[in-house]
Design goal:
With 601 residues, the chain is an alpha+beta fold. Helix 9 packs antiparallel against helix 11. The longest helix is centred in the last third of the chain and has 18 residues. It is globular. The protein starts with 9 loop residues before the first strand and ends with a strand.
Amino acid sequence: MEMKIAKSGMVTIAMATSITMLVAGCGSTTTNNSTSNTSSNTSSNANTATNSSANSSNSSQTPTPGGTINYALPPQTNLNWFLPLMNAASDSVYNSQIVDQLYKPLIWINNDYTINWQSSIASKITYNTAGTVYHVFLNPKWKWSDGQPVTSKDVLFTWNVIKAASAKNAPSPWPYVGAGTGDIPNGIKSVVANSPTEVTITLDKPANQQWFIYNGIIQLTPMPAHAWDKKSNMNSEIKYLGSNATNLMFDSVVDGPFKPVSATSSQSWVIAPNPNYAGHKSVVNKIVFTYEGSTASELAALKSGSLNVGYLDQSQLGEKSSLTSQGDKITPSYGFGIFWTEMNMFPSSPTKSIFDQLYVRQALQMGLDNQGAAQDIYKGYAVPLFGPIPPKPKTTFLDPNLKNPYPFNINQGKQLLESHGWKEVNGVMTKGSQKMKFTMMYVSGSTSSTDAAELMKQDWAQEGVDVTLKPVPFSTFISVTSNPKDTSWDLATGSGWFYNGPGFYPTGGELFATGAPTGTGFSDPKEDTLIQATHVPYPTQQQTMQHFFQYEDYTAKALPFLWGLNVATLAVTAPTVHNVNKYADPATAFPQMQYWWVSSN
């Protein structure tokens, strides 16, 4: 978190997306059309994989009012940020999942990466052929929960907050995580309200229109200006918003399908239907986002029925029958994202000079038995990665000619280090004063994540790389790895990024470019040039994809991160909960929970 609004991309590998649901087919989506100046009829280049096995059982029943959905978070995951705009330390899929129930995005992306205009604040977007001017039209049906209309004033308020919160000297807890993605904010010449329902955005230079819509405009989730714009200047305003971002009950004026009810850290976060929501209204009494201490405690809660939406860790597949025998459904799905091991290459890191060497990164990648982990740890419910685009789900963004550049080969990896002057001393590769002796954080709470980290440690030891494992909760993990000054870690594994905003269009600027908001210090001028080449418009789709594949192939070989596994989510739904899988969207990892409902039997 690879988003949006600042829709987060960061997720834990063991749970992949926890149980990430969105609407797939709730409202009409327009068909593709060759018109070059309107996006209301265009789709993204990503024909991302089919919806997760949509479970249509019982979907023909008429939803009945009432009931509670108890929805599990991944183990040891706290929700800790509740504004549509996020900072890096809070930019997780799980924070965004609850935020998206409270605030409607300007643009909602379907599972096939088309825009769902029925569930977007925007009704259409038009643009010029140069890709420099964009007109965003707002659907007047949307209202805030206090009855005020959602207007261009709210979009401009968001824009002004983004500008102020993106500054390098922005007060804590900022800066905004989306800064630098989609040319936001520094590539924007102006954002102007033409009327209450129209905004014009003008860029400094031409942009690939789909890239700017999916990575730039998508960040402008309207925030309630009449409720929040309280301060005399924007610096005071972002301090005010930042100080309230961790308080769910601050969100008293919302335009989404739900409103907040209560929040107790390390326990639960409760939302209930917003009676003034202008879209499809939820019929449940409430949805409870539930903290879980471990995969074992979650499995016990699923068995007892105290949880009715959750997931199964791959290490627990032997318990599958205990769930299916009581009518639970288990549905595997893959998100459109990548998972990795991060290397601390921030300037203050003592390991920067080691990880800056490509041959070191290559040797470390050769020491990763991703195929073995996929089979033995994840029981076949995982796909090895070898670049910035996952092989599954299948998309047009995956270069069909790209092969794994660094297959698992411990001996070759060790020889590569030795050829550059490293020698094994007491089991540790040593070169002068440098030693390949690292601390590696991993996300705690999951047996599979622990097993995967242990396997990496054992295999790297055969290369002379000595790793000390350090388990931490997910919220701590992303807080630490997003802090350029934190030197408590050298390697970090167990997280990843969904291309779901900012960054729906998967060109990698928010991850791999110099100074990337979700990077860990990697910098390569050629990488920067190839990323920039994907941001400009080209006359044909063939030329667009040619530049994309050049970026993709170079990134696969340059190893800004060590490529891991795209692990399937094994979603578990109780027989009394309906429409969870029917409206699942594993590609983007965002739910529209207002379609979920509960029956008495």
